[in-house]
Amino acid sequence: MLNTSYMKKIYTLVLSLLVVGTSLAQKSPDEFLGYKAGERFTPHHRVVDYFEHLASTLPNVELVYYGESVEHRPLFVAIVSSPENMQNLEQIRTDNLKRTGLLEGSPSTKVAINWMQYNVHGNEAVATEAAMMTFWEVANPNNSESKSWLQNQVLIIDPCANPDGKDRYTVWYNQKGNKILQPDPQSTEHSEPWPGGRPNHYLMDLNRDWAWQTQAETEQRIKLYHEWMPHLFVDYHEQGINDPFYFAPAAKPIHEQVSPFQHEFQDIYGKNTAAKFDANNWQYFTKERFDLLYPSYGDTYPMYNGAIGMTIEKGGSGRAGLGMLNALGDTVTLEERIIHQHTAGISAVEVTSKNAARLTEEFAKYFKDNSTNPKAKYKSFVIKGDGNHDRLKALLTLLDKNKITYGFAGNRSGLRGLDYNTGKSTSFSTTEEDIIVNAYQVKSVLTQVLFEPEAILEDSITYDITSWALPFAYGLQAYALETKLDAAKAYQKPVFEKNVVNGAPLAYIAPWNATVHAKFLAALLQEGIRARVTEFAFEINGESYPAGTLLLMRNGNQYVHDYDKKVVDLANKFEITLATSNSSYVDKGKDFGSSDVKVVKAPKVAVVSGAGTSSLNFGEIWYFFEQELNYPISILEADMLGRFDLNKYDVLILPSGNYLNGGSFTKVMDWVKAGGKAIAIEGSVGMFADKEGFSLSRFDTEEEKKAQQKTDTEFQKSARIEPYQDRERMGISTTAAGAIFEVKMDQTHPLSFGVGKNYYTLKNNGRRYAYLTNGVNAGIIPSLENYRFGFIGNKLKPQMNQSMVYGMENQGRGQIVYMVDNPMFRSFWESGKLIMANAIFFVGQ
C-alpha cells in the first residue's frame, strides 16, 4: 500500500520542477525569433508563433482567436493578468458588462481592462514589433514590477489588427531592403509601391471603419470588443518621418460628448508618458492634429463607448523601413521607433494599474449618467419606414452591430422635430412601420453621435469629415426630437413571407430602391436570366410602380432551366417580395413590350488600378463588386492600358486620380466612341474637363473663369499678409470636410432610378463643375439653399451654387458618366451605392 504522505511530497516536487522548467522555457521576442528587435520586420505567422509560445508556457496568458482576415490570416488577441484574475477572468468580463447595462446585475470585482491595438495600418509596421516587446515585459514572470501592474488589471493586446496589409509591407520590404543599413531616402526600400501596405486586402482604411463595420476584420473585432467593453483603448500608429512622437491629450475639436473624466485621464496618461520621454530626452508633441470627432476611429469609437480612447503616433511609417534620414539629417531607426512605442505602451499599463479603481467607477458612472440624462440637444430619432423597407433593414442591421436598441413608433400625430431633409423644424406623424431610436439606452452617446445632424465644432480645423448622420447615409426620411420619445412597442423583426411559384406568370415585378435590389439583379444576370428595366412609371393590377422597376419576363427566358424556381429562390434569398402579372398590358404608362422597357445586358466590367489611382477609391469599387454585388470585375493596371484590348469590356470604371494621358487617354476615348461606357469618379472627372470635344467645364462662362482667377489672386495676396500662424486656417476656407448637400436628381434619367426625390451627397472635395451644355445633368446643386450640414470653407461654399454633381454625356456611340462626389465613400454611404449600380447596369442600355 502506497504512503499517501510520500506521494504528496513526490507530487509537490514534480510540480515544482515543472514550474521551474516552464519558467526557463519562456523566451523573449529576441530569443524566440532569433534576432534583436529592430533588425528586421516580423511576418505575421511568426508573430502568431511567438504569442502561441507564450500562451503555452505561461499559465496566466490566454489567446483568443476572434476571426481571420480576408486573406485567411488569423486575427487574435493575447490576454494577460495575475494568476488569480485569470482564474476569475469570466467573472471580471461579465462584471464589466454589468457596469454598462449590457448585462443585468451588480459587479463584484474592480479590475480595469486595458486593450491595446497595434498595426491597424499595415505599413506602420513598428507597432507589431513593439506589441511583442510590451506584452513580454508585462507577462514576463521574472519582472517583479509587472506583478503589481496585473493585480488590478487585465491587459488585452491585439498585436496586428491588419495582418494582410502588414504582410504586404513586410514581404515587400524584406525583398527590397539592403543588407547594410541604407538611410538614403532615395533608395528603393524607402519608396513603397502602390497601393502600399496601409489598407487591408480590399484597400480599405480599417481605422475609419469602426462604426460602419463594412470590413471583415472590423466586424469580427467589434464583436469581441462588445464582449469586453474595455476601460482604456490605446491605438498605435506611425506618422511622417519628420514628426517626432504624438500622444494624448488629443487636439481640438473634441466632441462635446467626451466626458470630463475622459478629458482628465488623457491628461493623466500624457503627463506620465511625457515624464518617461523627458527622462530620455525624446521629442514629442500633444494636443495637436489628432482630434476626437469622427466616430469611426480607433480612439473615438471607444470614447463614445465609455472608454478612454487614445491614439499614439511615432514618426517613421512605411518610408522609414529599418532606418532613414529625416529632414534634420538624423537617422530614424526601427529600433528607436520600437523603443518609443514600447515606452508609451508601458506608460498605459502603469496608469491603468494606478487608476484601476477609478477607471471602473467612472466607467459605470458614464453609462448610468448618459442613459438617464443624455447630453446632446436631440434625444430621440424617428426613421420613416414606409416605402423603404429594404433601406431601413440595412440601417437596423448596422444598429444591431453597434448594440443600439430601437422599437416601433406606432401611430402618433402632433410630433415636432428637425426634418433632416430640410434642416428645419416641422410637424410630423408616425405609423406602425416607423422606428424610434432614443438616447435613453446603454449606447446613449454612440446613438447621439451617429444620428446627430451635425457635430458642434469648437475648431473648424479637423482631421476628418464633420458630418455622417445615418439618415443621410441610408437615404431615409427622419426626424430628430429634442425630447424623449419612447417606442410604442418593442421591435420584432418582420417575418418575411417567402415568394411561392404559382403557375407560370408572364412577368415577375421586382422593386429597385435599395442596394439589396442591385445584389438581386447581379445574381439574376449571373444565372443567365434576362432582366428588363422600366424607364417610365406604370400602374398594373391596381398597383403603382416607379421608373427603374425590374421586370423578369417569361419571353426571353424560356430556355432558362428551372427559370421560375431560380427567380423565386433568389428573391427569397435576398428577402425581396415579388409581384406577378399575366399580361403585358398596363393600366397607365408603357406596356411591357414597349421599347422604353429596356433589356439589361449583363455587362463585362473593368476597373483601373495602380499608380495614379486612389487606392482607397479603387478599394471601395473592388469591395462593392466582390463582397456586395458578388459580380465579376477585371482589374487593369493604369500604366498598361495601352496594351489591353478594351473591346472585351462594356464598362470601364475610372477611380479617383489622374492617370489617363496621351496614348491611354486616346485609347479609352476611342473605345468609348465605339460604344463603351466610362464611369469617372471624383478626381478622375477632371481628366475630361475643359477639353475640346467635351461639354464638361469647371466654369459656366469665360467671364466666370476670369473672375475666379481674379479671386484666387486676391486670396493669395491676402494670405501673404495674414499672420503666419493662421496659414492653416486660411487654407481650409477652400476645402470641404464632409459637407452634406441635397442633390436635385433628374428622376427620369436611369442614373436616378430608385434613388428618390431626395438624395444627399457627402462632399469631401472642392471640385466644382458647371452644368453640362451637351449632356444630361442627372444630379445638380441648384442653389446654396441645398446645403444642409457639415464643414465647407467660406470661399468654397459659394462656388457650389448651380453646379453639377452627377451627369452623363454621349461620346460617339458610348457614354461618359461623371461622378463629382464619390457615391460609395468608405462603403458606408449606403444610399449612393444605387447610383453606382444604375451607372453600371442601366445607363446607356
Automatic annotation (TrEMBL):
Cofactor(s) the record lists: Zn(2+)
Any one GO molecular-function label of the UniProt entry: zinc ion binding
SMART domains linked to this entry: Zn_pept (SM00631)
Signal peptide: 1-25
Keywords: Carboxypeptidase, Hydrolase, Metalloprotease, Protease, Signal, Zinc
A GO BP entry: proteolysis
Domain Peptidase M14: 41-311
A Pfam family recorded for this sequence: Peptidase_M14
Keyword Transmembrane helix: no
Keyword Hydrolase among record annotations: yes
Domain of life according to the entry: Bacteria
GO cellular component labels: extracellular space
Family named by the database record: Belongs to the peptidase M14 family.
Annotated protein name in UniProt: Zinc carboxypeptidase
Organism: Belliella baltica (strain DSM 15883 / CIP 108006 / LMG 21964 / BA134)
